Structure prediction request, 294 residues.
Amino acid sequence: MTKQKLGFIGLGAMGMPMAHHLMKAGHELHVWARKPQKIAPIVDDGAHLHHTARDLTAACDAVLLCVFDAAAVHEVVFGADGVAAGATAGTLLIDHSTTHPQKSRDMAERLADETGMDWVDAPVSGGARGAQAGSLIVMAGGSDADAARARDITAPYAKQFTHMGPVGAGQASKVCNQIIIGATVAVWAEALNFAHNFGVDAGALPDCLKGGWADSAVAQDHARRMAKLTPDTVGAGLMQKDMDAALDMARLTGSAMPVTAQVAELYRLVTARTGESGQASLIHLYTDQPFSAD
Prediction:
């Protein structure tokens, strides 16, 4: 693999281990953050610190983003001293953020028109543990050539990279991922509550169903945490954001999503009641007492 000068913006729970994997693979890493003190450890490990996203982009062959939402991506790319200000034709932007598919497509078109910089939307699945283990699943949207470049760059932390179509297709695939996860979490919350109310050891359900058709990563992670009422590891508002993006895309494409609409309302309800809207927060609609396995 050709060693490259890579910029990384968004060094949080996901981005930091991803960036470390790039350094371990031998790439020259460049970083920027609004609060440089928060990324001091990776700078101490050898990453080059820049004072603006503009300067970072001008120094790199490709820039990777892993920020909260489309608004954050827009600010980093098109804001003052942002990525676009330092972009040149042939430089690649790889966006690992989970954002709105149409907004991603619109931003990619604008960046290409204004600077010639290419864009691959490449949201990931696997969470912080997958990022640390280098086992993330990447779903990508972009041209064939750009996706091939992104596949090589992300190889140090992606165990699977699937090119799903043109720009926006990666984000649309992530919407599908979130739709499925959200619905599965919602039905697990119902099942745990029912089992407990009938006198079943609800906390043992993930073990009971392991290996069967009802098993999944959601069962072995989210359901276990819901049964114990373990606090969510994802930030407040994250799942609600994804459900709202799904429903907006349903309207734009004329796609019926009655189940997703119901799940979105459940997340909206638990947020209104508790202030929590992480993936496993739906259990709080049913109980504030853990279902502990014996």
About this structure: Residues 169-197 form the longest helix (29 residues).
